[in-house]
Amino acid sequence: MADAAPGRSDRNMAPAGNGAAIRIADLAFRWPRQPAPCLEIGEFAVAAGERVFLHGPSGSGKSTLLGLIGGVALPERGRIEVLGNDLGRLSGRRRDRLRADHVGFLFQQFNLLPWLSALDNVLLPTTFSALRKARAAVERSPREEAERLLGRLDLAAADWHRPAGMLSIGQQQRVAAARALIGRPEIIVADEPTSALDAERQQLFVDLLLQEAAAGGTALVFVSHDHRLAAHFDRTVELAAINRAAETGAAA
Ligand SMILES: Nc1ncnc2c1ncn2[C@@H]1O[C@H](COP(=O)(O)OP(=O)(O)OP(=O)(O)O)[C@@H](O)[C@H]1O
Ligand SMILES: [Mg+2]
Q1: Which ligand is nearest to the CA of 60?
Q2: Which residues span the domain enclosing 68?
């Protein structure tokens, strides 16, 4: 686990002695039809089980970086390794498999299926990945594990069978968190998941997410522009400090 004091932003590399969950080297990414790269990152790594707070202003490229880590887009230059796999060398199919098996996503807009119940949304990753299904079933059935996670995240049992689209934003957020956590993926990337919550609920939510990630040995990359949450994490990284594109004014 990291030994860095919270709030330190000068260490882009994961602490030594730990297998890397994510390792980025010499990365450049440019959106189509944009004159300059949005991201140029020399080095950035996250250790297994490490919980990193990635901070940066709106438009600075945080969601873009998470998409690259998830293998949703490919960089024009450089290397992104996820659990030792070089994403650029994998076929699209194998990248999808790696993501389904090993990466939990907590999206800025949640991306729940509105007509499915809260419980079935949480169970979705176990239908796409036999590995996550098996991991969710270690101590109980996947359904019981989904219920445990929803209970942990303080969603009342009465809401478990309601369509996700009928839940409040804060409730949907907790369903999305349980969905990212189920089956103990090695990595969770969380994209600004607390922006809809008031300050007190934000802290509570982040604490629970961190506790569950720690229990699962899950590395967490948590993106936010709200510095108040940084103290809860093993390490804080300022995107501007690792992104050379920001220095040259290329990023918005
Ligand atoms: N699909 C896209 N096509 C073209 N440009 C894009 C696309 N998505 C994002 N961008 C551009 O890339 C830059 C970084 O966007 P990104 O969404 O990664 O920022 P962000 O840090 O996540 O911002 P926010 O905090 O508002 O979510 C912005 O200049 C944005 O306009
Ligand atoms: Mg974003």
Answers
A1: 1
A2: 20-247
Residue 154 maps to a domain: yes
Q: Walk along the chain (252 residues) and give the pLDDT tens digit of each residue.
A: 343 333 333 345 545 445 799 999 999 999 999 889 999 999 999 999 999 999 998 899 999 999 999 988 899 999 999 999 999 999 999 999 999 999 999 987 788 999 999 999 999 999 999 999 999 999 899 999 999 999 988 899 999 999 999 999 889 999 999 999 999 999 999 998 887 777 777 888 898 899 989 988 999 999 988 888 899 899 999 999 999 997 765 444
Max Cα distance, the chain (Å): 52
Backbone angles phi, psi at 220, to 5 degrees: -125, 125
Q: Is residue 6 in a domain?
A: no
- Domain membership of residue 220 (yes or no) is yes
**Nearest CA, atom 26, ligand 1:** 58
In-domain check, residue 1: no
